[in-house]
Amino acid sequence: MKLKLDLHDIYNRGGEIDRALRAVIDEAVAKKAPLVEIIPGKGSGQLKKHVLRFLDRKDVKALYHRVEKDKDNFGRVFVHFRWK
Which helix (H) or strand (E) holds 4? Predict the structure, then answer.
C-alpha cells in the first residue's frame, strides 16, 4: 500500500500544507504503510524545500526510515517507513 499526497491544490497556504503533511504521515503510521509519495510539483522548488524542512523536524523524523528524492522527477519525494 502506498499513500499519496498531492500539494498542487494548497501550494500557497502554509498552515494547510503542514496539516496535510502531518495527516499523511500519521495515516502511514496508523496503517503501517511502507511508502508515502508527496508531490510538491516542480515550480520554483520552494514547496519542495518546505516539505523537506517539515520532514527534517525531529518529531517527524522519528516516525519514518528515510526520504528519497525522485531522481527522474524533481517534483516528487518518497518517504519510506520500516515496520517490524
Answer: strand 2-6
Residue 76's pLDDT band, with cuts at 50, 70 and 90, is: very high
Predicted model pTM: 0.91
Angle at which helices 46-55 and 14-31 cross, to 10°: 50
d(CA 54, CA 44): 18
Whether pLDDT at 13 is above 90: no
Instruction: Indicate the helix (H) or strand (E) that contains 37.
Output: strand 35-39
Instruction: Give me the residue label for grid cell 518518497.
Output: 78
- Closest to 6 measured CA to CA, from 19, 27, 21, 26: 21
